Amino acid sequence: MPTAFTAGRLGDKIRSDCWVELILKQSGGILIELESKVESMYGDSTRELCKEVLSSLKIENASINVIDYGALPFTIAARIETAARRAGLTGYSYLPELKPFSHYTTKKDRFRRSRLYIPGNDPKYMINAGLHKPDAIILDLEDSVAPPEKDAACALVRNALRHVNFYGSERMVRINQGELGLKDLEWIIPHNVHVVLIPKVEDPSQVTAVDERIAEIKSREKIEAKTFLMPIIESALGGIKAYEIASASPNISALALGLEDYTADIGVQRTLEGRESFWLRSVIVNAARAARVQPIDTVFTDVADMVGLRESVIEAKSLGFDGKGCIHPRQIPVVHEAFAPTALEISKAKKIVIAFENAERKGLGVVSLGSKMIDPPVVKRALNTINMAESLGILTQNWRGESR
Q1: How, if at all, do strands 114-119 and 323-326 pair?
Q2: In the 3-class helix/strand/coil scheme, how is 337-385 assigned residue by residue?
Q3: How many other CB atoms are there within 10 angstroms of residue 16's CB atom?
């Protein structure tokens, strides 16, 4: 009896999006059996999609059983391809159309106050993630995906990068560790990833390996757009080598912190007060600033505690962090509000920027405000404060005229 290859299970249960069973045959063409929650509206188009995907995968003889709970085409296609790959058919892929809204690029120094984690094998969370307006969306291939489902997550994340509208949020992917992570890059780099998150980094060579593999893929695929890197420090050894890691590549845009693994590594419980992680948080900020990249704080895991989240963000900001990870959309507005510049910060930034612009107009090589000299990094930070205030509507773009 022919072997059946499946995709779309969660343990012993069929996932809530789509389940596929594929049986390869020697002859007989393609036989499609479809059980669909949306048969009356999309049954015919789903059958056509099945034929199109199987044709792209060069499968001419097979029976395919699809249970569709209302999944979008990119999900159904990914489930079919995963089942085919589990059958050993790895020579071909099916790529959904790269939508026009997926073509935008990013900048190394853009705002990264909030980064919303989305499990890579749960497409239902991907679809509306951009509507919540996080600064970045992280499609996660690492900790949120069970080892047997890593292949399914790769296909889904690739298809989502091509097909899902993230409404201008920065497009990030957290890859796996080591060689598995390098293989992940083949799935994602050709499809406009802005930032690759590298987990559990303990040595600069881990960053270099990812950087070099990305360069190889881009050269092969003739990709010119920038792809930045965000190493995540999650251990005592990573903390010790934080500056070396943060400065391992000019493509690093930020250095992030992961406290769940760090506290386990040093043998303590993670607490709200955070005394056990103060050393590493300080190290991350200083290493990032020394390397001229952004320091990004860890996630706040209690999605019901908005007061605690706000206090955590305010503390992170006071330590020098530029952003924080989010695991639920309801955390995003709180993070943005808490990272917003205060009236005092805005007032100081305006004075610094005006002093700098006045000195520039007069051709002065030295900028001062009162009795204090103003260094370029201070001006840059003041400009970032102004830009954030403008983006939040706290300041109008005519603030210079209003200040005089």
Answers
A1: parallel
A2: HHHCCCHHHHHHHHHHHHHHHHHHHCCCCCCEECCEECCHHHHHHHHHH
A3: 14
Please give the biggest Cα pair distance in the chain. 86
Task: Determine the residue type at 154.
Answer: C
Distance CA 190, CA 217 (A): 8
392 backbone dihedrals φ, ψ, rounded to 5°: -90, -5
- Whole-angstrom Cα Rg for the chain: 24
Q: Considering only CA atoms, which of 269, 221, 265 is closest in space to residue 239?
A: 265
Of 3, 48, 39, which Cα lies nearest the Cα of 22? 3
Note the pLDDT tens digit of each residue in 196-242: 999 999 999 999 999 999 999 999 999 999 999 999 999 999 999 99
Query: How far is Cα 253 from Cα 273, in angstroms, rounded to an integer?
Result: 28
Q: How far apart are CA 238 and CA 267, in angstroms?
A: 15
How far is residue 199's CA from residue 8's CA, in Å, rounded to a whole number?
26
Q: Which helix (H) or strand (E) holds 6?
A: strand 4-7
Per DSSP, the three-state class of 276 is helix
Indicate yes or no: pTM above 0.85.
yes
At 22-80, the pLDDT tens digits run 999 999 999 999 999 999 999 999 999 999 999 999 999 999 999 999 999 999 999 99
